[in-house]
């Protein structure tokens, strides 16, 4: 079950979002999330007590430098990694408590993931790559799967590439195919880990416009990026540095001023705004 009121997404397509995020309870809730890795050099704290709320229908960017904890944070939400301490909730699902088997089923139906390097299977056609998640999750009839795949490829404007292998299409087209695959099972939440990081600026802008259209149609998008210019285009940004998140006011000021995203600079901006603590519910 995904939504707190017990309802599920019953549609086969992307539906308009009729409610503003502030009128909904938070769809994604992180409470005191910590993540530490242990190496020969000792303990490395990647996340330090993160509190974060994301509402249904929001387009949120997670911004920070390499090594700041962006990917670790997105992996907590996607269930790819588990917190050392704290809780991760998506709707009524305690993601931090799911077994590996439960996680695979939950993720397949409720979450779409778009990777920086596309991760398309090279021996399958574009159409077959998009079909695969529906096959794994036993969604729709075989005929409905093909119809839905073609609908999604039309949505991302590469239906004419359906029968080509990934190696036969451009990087931008491969990323569009990856987005169609992420939408295959009609998940309410899409996460992207640097989804435009391997694209030129023009293609990255076009892909971001596609994300914006999908949000307008009701999807919740969470995108990890180090590109401040793209981050300024979303509804809300969260800055993470040294494993800590900064509140919306600080994030907005940092991105507006186009300053470096290092810890010292962000703390300085926060201090100038009168903040005293960075680990705030966002």
Word description of this protein:
Strand 9 (236-241) and strand 10 form a beta hairpin. The radius of gyration is 19 Å and the shape is globular. The strands form 2 sheets. A 6-stranded mixed beta sheet has the order 6-7-8-3-9-10, with helices on both faces. The chain starts with 25 loop residues before the first strand and ends in a 10-residue tail after the last helix. It has helices at 70-78, 100-110, 126-137, 142-155, 171-182, 201-216, 228-231, 248-257, 263-272; strands at residues 26-39, 42-55, 59-63, 85-90, 93-94, 111-115, 189-193, 220-225, 236-241, 244-246. It is α/β, with parallel strands linked by helices. The protein contains 9 helices and 10 strands. The chain is 35% helix and 23% strand. The model is unreliable at 1-22 and 276-281 (pLDDT under 50). The protein has a single domain (21-272), classed as Rossmann fold.
Count of helical regions: 9
Look at the structure and give the mean pLDDT.
82
Oligomeric state of this protein: single chain
Q: How many DSSP-defined strands?
A: 10
How is the largest sheet built, in terms of strand order?
6-7-8-3-9-10
Rg is 19 Å
- Summarize the biggest pleated sheet: 6 strands, mixed
The CATH superfamily is: P-loop containing nucleotide triphosphate hydrolases
